Amino acid sequence: MTRLNKLNNDSVSSPEDDTQTPTKTGEKESRRRFLKSSVGAGAAIATGAGLSLSTNTVLADNFSARRPDRSLNGEFRAIAAANLKVEMAEQHFNETIVLPGQKDNRDERRYKDERYLASYSKALPCNYFGEVEVNAFQKLRRAMRRGRESDFRNIELDEDADRRLVSPQAAFKFEPSALDSHATRINPSYQFRSAELAAQAGEVYWQAITRDVPFIDYTTNNLVNAAVDDLNNFSITPGATNNGELTAQRLFRGETPGDLTGPYISQFLLQDVTFGPSEMVQRYQEPLQGRNFMTDHDSWLAVQRGINPRESMHFDSTRRYVYNSRTLGEYVHRDVSFQAYLNACAILLNLGPDAVDPSNPYADTSRAEEGFVTFGAPFATDLVTRVASIAFSGAWFQKWRVHRFLRPEAYGGRVHMMLTRQRRYELHSDILNCDAVARVFSDNGSYFLPQAFAEGSPTHPSFPAGHACVAGACVTALKAVFNENYVLDNPVEADATGTLLLPYSGSDITVGGELNKLANNIALGRDAAGVHYRQDGIEGLKAGEQQAIAYLQDQTRTLKEANFSGFNLTKFDGTRIVVKNGQVILV
After folding, report:
1. Rounded distance, CA 192 to CA 110, Å?
2. What's CA 194's distance to the chain center, in Å?
3. How many beta carbons lie within 10 A of that of residue 16, not counting itself?
4. Quick one: pLDDT band at residue 1, thresholds 50, 70, 90?
5. Mean pLDDT across 519-541
6. Does 149 score more than 60 pLDDT?
7. What's the total number of domains in the chain?
8. What is the pLDDT of residue 12?
9. Domain that holds residue 156
10. Where are the beta strands (DSSP E) in 129-272?
């Protein structure tokens, strides 16, 4: 039995009891004695592997596992490294066992006798109405509860499915550092019958209708104004409202500080990117305008069953800047998980020392040293890419083991079946009376939600968005190493054709605000494609932020620089924190 397992058994009375915390009396000294007694065994292992530790061997400055390190006041380096890892694990353990349980929206229980109509079931067997076969869904639930290989092998896909479920076993993955996936906590998804979900579904319908409207034309476009009027008539207006009111300038934007300042698209998705000797202009392929998918019953049902789409996407021959929802949706269709944030990091690294966070110990130019492996470019790029993988583990735990929430395309199917009087569901009246839904029927002869991707959504649950969890983690890492208050010079926005960048001359645009905007552009860009709701992005950012902060806590324990005052950053909710010596301090 490991020491932490014993600690868990001795100190926590039951899974429901979150009031007790483990004692630490004498544990640190016991651990040190144990590790020190193990150094001889470690030497024997090294010798057996062919590594001579003879006293006759000449080592550079006598660095050996069997010799104290003078920089550690006589401690053994190997023992200090092992102690550090155990102490970091202990801290995250202690922080985790006092957390409340992660809640779900209870829809799976509510609709268990109605074919789990509010749950994710894409690629599983379903009937004509897109409702899952009960036994097949229960096999999936059993696998996600127990995690046994035999249960995963028993998951039943539709007999005609070409697509498989995306990585459900990743929901059980352990993280060797920082916060474990199961220690993330977010709000539960909105209930299927709620006014909140109806409003967010209405927003996604409007995003589908306005895909080809240039962002620069939002304040004057008739479709955009119709969207604003319609969404303001919902019981709950979605998005970044002002006293409950939506405007064209606020439509489809994020809800974090900086999102409402400047152009819709973040500077980090528009500016050229320099990678060493290479330079990249951020122009991307645009799918042909006016072309949407899954707007008839046969194609919609086939995709729900996991069958590859009959139709394919076609692209304009001109590459364009991200200038409307269609180009934004396609960017997040094919991007590498950390691509946008690595690009942002490269842009920031080229802005000079003033763009670096003032807490960087090498911002003091009187020193004889400069940052590189720590607090330099490799340090920044490593942080922003490493937390992306950690964030995915949190996303997959929440998606598969907790929420299993249905995708917007499935919700749109429920809307179609109800409005065509084929089925009855607990849909909120706001979505049934939505102007966007009526316009979709006028254009397509159905109420299915038009999709930007031929295959619709990925084959994993909707809530939270994986893109959003990665965005939350990567942007948090960038805030930690760069100066959020730095004002970006010469901001730009894409013109109405997406072929030119125009100067923007409005309010000052800061690094912090544009990083928040970047996170929401990516998270809500998936909504623009029809594959997510706003809640998936908002809560996903929180989950990713939690895991990135825990990773920063670990990093502060590893650094040598005594004049480092901690990572200073602003959370997505506007809270200022400092991460120092493994602790998170409110400012």
Report:
1. 10
2. 24
3. 8
4. very low
5. 98
6. yes
7. 3
8. 37
9. 107-170
10. none
Q: At what angle do helices 27-37 and 77-97 cross, to 10 degrees?
A: 140
Domain end call among 97, 130, 151: 97
Residue 396 near residue 173 (C-beta atoms within 8 A): yes
**Chain-centroid distance, C-alpha 245:** 28
pTM: 0.90
Q: Is residue 510 part of a domain?
A: yes
Q: Could you tell me if 430 and 438 are in contact, meaning their C-beta atoms sit under 8 angstroms apart?
A: no
Concatenating the DSSP letter of every residue in 41-73 gives HHHHHHHHTT----TTS--GGG--TTS--GGGT
Active centre residues (catalytic): 460, 467
Cα distance between residue 185 and residue 557, in whole Å: 24
Tokens representing residue 420 in the block:
């065509």
**Token pair 């640190």 is at which residue?**
28
pLDDT at 4 over 80: no
DSSP conformational letter for 556: H
Q: How far apart are CA 341 and CA 533, in angstroms?
A: 22
Judge if 226 and 285 occupy the same domain.
yes
Give the distance from CA 540 to its chain's centroid: 5
Contacts of 121 (CB under 8 A, 6+ apart): 132, 136, 137, 140, 304, 406, 410
Helix (H, G, I), strand (E, B) or coil at 321: coil
**Do 340 and 464 share a domain, yes or no?**
yes
Residue 520 and residue 525: Cα distance in Å, rounded?
8
How would you classify the pairing of strands 492-494 and 278-280? unpaired
Q: Which tokens in the block code for residue 350?
A: 């080229």
